[in-house]
Amino acid sequence: MKSALAPGIRLITSFSRDSWYRSFILFLTFLFYTAYHLSRKPISIVKSELHRNCSTVIRPADLNVTNNATWCDWAPFDQDNYQTLFGVLDNCFLVAYAIGMFFSGIFGERLPLRYYLSVGMLSSGLFTALFGLGFYWNIHSLGYYAFIQVMNGLVQTTGWPAVVACVGNWFGKGKRGFIMGVWNSHTSVGNILGSLIAGVFVSSAWGMSFIVPGIIIACTGILCFFFLVEKPEDVNCTPPQHHSEQESGEEEPLLQNSPHVDRTINGAISVEPQEVAEEHSEAISFCGALSIPGVMEFSLCLLFAKLVSYTFLYWLPLYISNVAHFEAKEAGDMSTLFDVGGIVGGIMAGLVSDYTGGRATTCCVMLLAAAPMLFLYNYIGQRSLGTTIGMLLVCGGLVNGPYALITTAVSADLGTHESLRGNSRALSTVTAIIDGTGSIGAALGPLLAGLISPTGWNNVFYMLISADVLACVFLSRLVYKEAQGWCGRAPRVRGFKEI
Q1: What are the phi and psi torsion angles at 269 (to 5°)?
Q2: Looking at the whole model, is its pTM more than 0.85?
Q3: Which of 241, 334, 440, 466 sits between 20 and 30 A of 374, alpha carbons compared?
């Protein structure tokens, strides 16, 4: 009598070869960008250690100091302008990141993604560790730390366009919002892990708060070199279907003079991979990517959405420490709740936008809801531990949900827009334009927070609320178009066909 297959083997064999590869690539790219964000987070945790309230710190008996108020601070952050200096460090990274992002997508289209990501992660690991080595080398020069931040900002731009392009190569439009909403939780997972790892060392030897994340991202770079598969065609898998028959039925064929293959695998009708590569191998120009419908609106919206998100990323632990009077480690641990809320918000945004077909409307509603929640968090968020936890979770979901949706599903939709006629190489440039514009806001947010915070934290939150409202304004035209589609005045289309 023939024995039945073991349940585990039946489960394994129930998935096709394509499904296993897609799952593997999704996991691998998730791991890569988790490492990128993990290595960015330590500076926000270490800030409250570089400048402390020394009156509450027990001074060693054998330590001879001349200034009792700043003896425990790390020069040059021991002066009254320490918040401005922290803003300088943040912006050295973020301005370099914003500028580099516009060029990164261009390089990403023309270089093998595996090499590009590997070199980027190894370089990022080096510069992250060098920042931490300043502790052991007893470096007190602002110029040294600023230079490290600039270089790290430039090499970190290798990550986002490359991983989105890779995922876009493997996944079609079906359920893209949900898949990328789950996948984009790498941002929050990286922030959480970065906070926890930095928090372990921050009070004893803050240099290790940078060195350990630097080693981690360098190791993932090695992993990328040995295992990343850029395209399904490279391992004889079926390329995804980026446009449904309904969307492209009234248009000319995406591949003229290319016969379609009748085979269907996993429900996706595909054309021969070799023909796709031959027909559309040229990279898109920067101006060509800007002309894609919806790119400008979502780019400008992301500028203000990312301004809010990155202000929280870099200043939330210090805000909690100053307002709620937590120690550096406790403030860092508490700030991770904002990222936990971001995970849920990103997934919910993807699910809702998949169901409704309204990417712009989903973003706009969440941004509008975020504005009053930020106001409430500033005024009642620190009254009790339970209130703090609840408000951080809600604010994290509403702030990071639209940011996650735009940088993933929206970027992939626009990067595979039918006007590109099957040119999948445009995805990296479109992603770089959208995230690069958003990174300008990411640079402005922490800079403005550093300049405004000495006048009071209330003014910082007014600035964040204003940014949320402006983000909605830039989406208003797209929201109107989507509403017309739902009311039957225009065809309802997912993926911005007639925006």
Answers
A1: -80, 130
A2: no
A3: 440
